[in-house]
Design goal:
The chain has 480 residues and is an alpha/beta fold. The protein contains 16 helices and 17 strands.
Length: 480
C-alpha cells in the first residue's frame, strides 16, 4: 500500500520509465510513502486494475504518451467502477501535458477522468501537488509552479511548472532495480532540450538546452555499470550538440569497452545508444566513433526529409551533403549500428520527392531505415499548415496524417504498407542473402521495393501476421 502511486503503460517490458523514477526520486520526505508500478502495453487489463486497487493510493500520477493514451483511458475507465474512495489523479507526460486547452472535453475524455494536468517537467511540481493534496490544502503558485488554473469547466486543474534546472534534481537512477539493470534498457540523460525548431516535434516548444553536471553524471554511469547495467539508451535529443561533452561521455565508455589501464572493464555485451545530429560529426568525434568495438554502439540519426524546401518550411536544419557524408562515414569507418529516420506526410512533400529521399538514404546503406508517418503531436506547431496543405489527421492517438494536398490517402497508405514490409524484410535482416537481387544496383530502390510491397499486399491482404514460410516464398520468387 502507498499513499502515492506512480504508474504508466510502457511499450514493452524492456522499456522502463525514467520519468516515474525522476518523479519519485524528487518527492523528498514523501518518497517512502510512494510506489512505482509499470505495465506493458499488451498486459491484460485486469492485471493492471488489480495491481492499482491493491496499492490503495490517495494520489496517482500517470505518464501518458500518444502510444499509451487509449490504454490509459481504458484503465481509468475500468478503475472508475472499482473505486471505494477515488484517489486524486494527476496526468502528465509528453502527450497528456500538451492536449489543447481549447478543444471540447469530449474530444479528450481522458481529461475528465483526472484532477490535475501537469504541462511540462513535473519533478518538482508533482511533489507540490502531493504535499498539498495529502495535507488537504489548496495548490498555489510557488517556486516550483508558475501557474495553477482550471483547464476549463468540467476539466482538471492545469499546473504549469517552473522549468527544471538539472543541477538541482535527483536524476533517479538509484531507483532502477537490479532486475531493471540486468534485463531492461537503462535510460539516462546527460542534457535536456533541443536548440532546433522542427515543427513536428514537441522539443520545438522549448529550445533551451540544460545540462546535468558532467562529473556527477559520469559517476552515476559508473555506479550503474557496477550494478549490472549493460544497455544504455540516452534520451538526449541532440547528443552531439556539445562536442566536448559528447566526447567526454564517449571516452568514458571507450575506456571500459577497450580495457584501458586502470579502468574496470565493461561487462560483456555492454552497448550504448545515442541520438545524433547527422550534420554535426567533427573530426574529434569521428575518431572516437571509429574506436567502438562491434556491437557496442547504436546510433539514431534523424534525416526526416532530404527535400530542402520542405525542411526549410518546417524549421528543420538541412545540410544534405554533410548528412550523406556522415552516413557514409558511419558505414565505412565504424562498427556502429545505424538507425536512420524518414517521415512521410510532411507539408509539401510528394511521393516523388519522398522516393528520391529514400533512394539517397538507401545508397548510404544504414543498418536500418525507419519509415515513419507524420503524427500530430498535441501542441506541436506543425498544425499551422493544416489549411495551406489541407492536412487531414486521424482524430485518435497516435494522430497520424491521413492525407495532404501533395500526398493522397492512397499514397500514404501505400507508404505505410511499404514501411511495414521494409521492417519485416530488410530491417530485421532475415533476407540479407537476397538483397542484391531484391534491390539491384542501378534500379531506384523505392520503386523496386514498392512493387514488392504491392505484390505482397495483394497476395496476403495485410502486412502483419504473415507466416514466415509464406513470406519467404513470395520474397524469393520476386528476387528471381
Amino acid at each position: 500500500m502507498a499513499d502515492i502511486l506512480l504508474a504508466t503503460i510502457n511499450a514493452k517490458y524492456v522499456h522502463p520509465s525514467l520519468a516515474l523514477r525522476l518523479l519519485r526520486a524528487n518527492l523528498g520526505e514523501l518518497e517512502d510513502r510512494s510506489e512505482i508500478i509499470e505495465f506493458a502495453l499488451r498486459q491484460p487489463l485486469d492485471e493492471k486494475v488489480e495491481a492499482i486497487m491493491a496499492a490503495h493510493p490517495r494520489v496517482i500520477g500517470l505518464s501518458v504518451s500518444i502510444w499509451n493514451h487509449e490504454q490509459t483511458l481504458e484503465l481509468l475507465s475500468a478503475l472508475s467502477h472499482r473505486w471505494v474512495s477515488r484517489p486524486i489523479i494527476v496526468l502528465g507526460g509528453p502527450e497528456a501535458g500538451n492536449l489543447p486547452a481549447s478543444a471540447p472535453l469530449l474530444n479528450y475524455p481522458i481529461l475528465t477522468a483526472s484532477d490535475f494536468l501537469v504541462r511540462g517537467e513535473g519533478e518538482l511540481a508533482f511533489t507540490e501537488i502531493c504535499r498539498t493534496a495529502l495535507a488537504g490544502k489548496p495548490l498555489v503558485p510557488n517556486t516550483a509552479i508558475s501557474a495553477v488554473r482550471p483547464l476549463r469547466e468540467g476539466g482538471p486543474t492545469l499546473v504549469e511548472p517552473v522549468p527544471v534546472d538539472p543541477m538541482f534534481i535527483d536524476p533517479g537512477y538509484r531507483l532502477y532495480s537490479d532486475n531493471d539493470l540486468a534485463r531492461k534498457l537503462t535510460y539516462v540523460e546527460a542534457s535536456r532540450g533541443c536548440p532546433f525548431g522542427c515543427e513536428f516535434c514537441l522539443s520545438s516548444l522549448d529550445r533551451s538546452v540544460r545540462e546535468f553536471p558532467l562529473n556527477e553524471f559520469l559517476r552515476n554511469l559508473e555506479i550503474l555499470i557496477d550494478r549490472g547495467a549493460k544497455a544504455f539508451k540516452f534520451l538526449d535529443r541532440t547528443f552531439n550538440l556539445d562536442t566536448e561533452r559528447a566526447g567526454a561521455v564517449m571516452d568514458f565508455f571507450l575506456a571500459r569497452l577497450n580495457g584501458e589501464s586502470g579502468v574496470r572493464p565493461a561487462p560483456q555485451g555492454l552497448y550504448v545508444h545515442f541520438e545524433m545530429v547527422p550534420a554535426r560529426f567533427p573530426a574529434v568525434l569521428r575518431e572516437k566513433l571509429t574506436r567502438f568495438p562491434p556491437g557496442s554502439l547504436r546510433l539514431e540519426v534523424g534525416i526526416q526529409t532530404f527535400n530542402k524546401e520542405v525542411a526549410d518550411r518546417i524549421g528543420r536544419a538541412s545540410e544534405r551533403e554533410k548528412e550523406l557524408d556522415a552516413l557514409r562515414f558511419l558505414r565505412e569507418k565504424t562498427n556502429a549500428i545505424v538507425h536512420a529516420d524518414l517521415i512521410a506526410g510532411l507539408p509539401g512533400e510528394t511521393v516523388e520527392s519522398f522516393a528520391r529521399g529514400f533512394d539517397l538514404l538507401w545508397e548510404t546503406r544504414p543498418g536500418e531505415i525507419q519509415l515513419g508517418i507524420l503524427k500530430r503531436l498535441p501542441g506541436a506547431p506543425i498544425v499551422r499548415y493544416d489549411g495551406e496543405f489541407r492536412m487531414e489527421w486521424a482524430p485518435t492517438p497516435p494522430y497520424e496524417i491521413i492525407s495532404t494536398s501533395t500526398m493522397t490517402k492512397l499514397e500514404l497508405d501505400r507508404v505505410k504498407t511499404f514501411a511495414r514490409f521494409w521492417e519485416l524484410i530488410v530491417n530485421r535482416g532475415r533476407f540479407d542473402a537476397h538483397l542484391d537481387r531484391l534491390l539491384p544496383q542501378g534500379v531506384p530502390a523505392y520503386t523496386r521495393f514498392s512493387a514488392l510491397s504491392d505484390r505482397l499486399f495483394s497476395r496476403f491482404g495485410r502486412s502483419w501476421g504473415i507466416p514466415l514460410d509464406e513470406l519467404t516464398s513470395e520474397v524469393e520468387a520476386f528476387a528471381l
